[in-house]
Design goal:
- By secondary structure, this protein is α+β, with helices and mostly antiparallel strands.
- It has a domain of 79 residues: hypothetical protein PF0899 fold, CATH 3.30.2320.50.
- 27% of the residues lie in helices and 30% in strands.
- The protein is built from two helices and six strands, in the order αβαβββββ.
- The strands form two sheets. Strands 2-1-6 form a three-stranded mixed beta sheet, covered by helices on one side. It has a three-stranded antiparallel beta sheet with strand order 4-3-5, with no helix packed on it.
- A hairpin with a 5-residue loop joins strand 3 and strand 4.
């Protein structure tokens, strides 16, 4: 359900930026979403479709760019993308820790007319 709040806030930012640019219509919004953010693309799209009714963003396309989670091994210090299961380093097998990469959620760009 947190997708509703983040989608509402994202839309508010997009509408504000479009207004500043004097836009009449938002065509596309490109989002960057980290795999650790727990944000589900389909939920964002569903709430976006609902929230944009009767706004200049109605009918705009959302483009989702996923950022993989990056971990750093506590033993050998290499950085690696989080495996599908677990947190083990692919080089030495020790436990990895999140680096912060993969928690993103932001607007990369807005296309307007």
């Amino acid at each position: 359900m947190h997708e509703y709040a983040v989608t509402k806030n994202m839309l508010a930012v997009a509408l504000e930026e479009a207004e500043k640019a004097g836009a009449k219509k938002i065509i596309e919004i490109r989002l960057v979403i980290g795999d650790l953010s727990t944000i589900i693309d389909e939920s964002v799209q569903m709430y976006f479709d609902f929230l944009t009714e009767e706004t200049i963003a109605d009918g705009a396309k959302l483009v989702f760019k996923r950022v993989p989670a990056v971990f750093q091994c506590k033993a050998c210090s290499i950085e690696f993308n989080k495996p599908a299961k677990g947190f083990d380093c692919p080089q030495c097998g020790a436990m990895g820790a999140p680096t912060g990469v993969g928690r993103e959620f932001y607007i990369e760009s807005i296309e307007v007319e």
